[in-house]
User: What shape does this take?
Amino acid sequence: MALRTNSTSFVEFVFMMGLMTAMTALAIDATLPALGDIGQALNIIDQNDNQFIISILFAGMAIGQIIYGPLSDSIGRKNTIYIGFVFYIIGCFFSLYSTDLTTMLVGRFLQGLGAAGPRIVSMALIRDRYEGREMARVMSFIMSVFIFVPVIAPAIGEAILYIWNWEAIFVSFLIFALFMFLWFSIRQEETLSRSERVPFSLRHIYKGIKETCLNRTAFGYTVISGIIFGAFLGYLSSAQQIFQDAYNTGNLFALYFGLFAVSIGLASFFNAWLVMRYGMRKISAYSILSIFIISLFFFIFAVLFDGLPPLYSFILYGLLTFFCIGLLFGNLSAMAMEPLGHIAGIGAAVVGSLSTFIAMPIGILIGRLYDGNILPLVAGFALFSLLAGVVFRYTSTANMHSIQIDEVAP
Assistant: This one.
């Protein structure tokens, strides 16, 4: 498949893709400061149950991605993303008018189902235009834009709560979705020509899933991505409780959460340069190893303080760990997608969906183990980074073609 050009400039394309991908982050991070208020309004007794308001969104994403990918191969990238926007907006209305936990979870599921469209089809759209290290470079820039949303989203949620109430947060989601819908529809061209489209069929989905899962490189890096993302999801689920309850940071929660997001963003930005010099595989290997070593030693340190070491030490730990995670996200996705250019739509769907399905139980497990200290979170990062390292070592011995992709500069 020939790589596509586009009338939008490189900068506009990066910002557009980054913000569309960030719809999920906005739906998660802006609600974090409001979880306590939402729980009270919906009469949720166990505070750990508030975490389902975060995790259920990923369930919708995981299911949505496996549908949107092949659908985009059939009806085009743009039409598929439009469908995603519609589901996202419907989900916002459900959550906005919810009076019980069930209705809220339905709305959040639909938001995840809808956000999966822009998020996963954007990967296929990017793959239509770029490949190899250049794709990793572009995805790193996109991640740098994407990370701007988690930096400010909790502050936006805090500001809205200060002026209005938690329902207004979902109104802000609606406004953002409508803005992105208009911008994308007007400025972005279709990257998949009609001659390259394939009919939507279960057989096509099955063949795509089979090819992706049997490809050692694509499957291996997808599993690694899911493992790392699972530990990260455990942090997202318990972040509000750790900062506001365990460390009693109050309104400063948005600041500390934003610092961790900045660390990921800086790593993604530097990765755009580093990956052209050192390659995706080497950077990813050292990042996984660093997460394991840092988490192992910090866990021992935290035990000495009964699971609640000084806040400054937890901040330092988070900055270092999340910098490594920032180096991983773009590279793992690019390495998983590289052998799948000829089936970019279904390939992106399987990579995104499978990694999310792997991440969900890991994240839920870490989040549910929260009992007033950070030990479950730090232990989760240590154990699952070790597991990711084992899978990485197995995957890195894949066929010579995948090695040449990363080790030989274009």
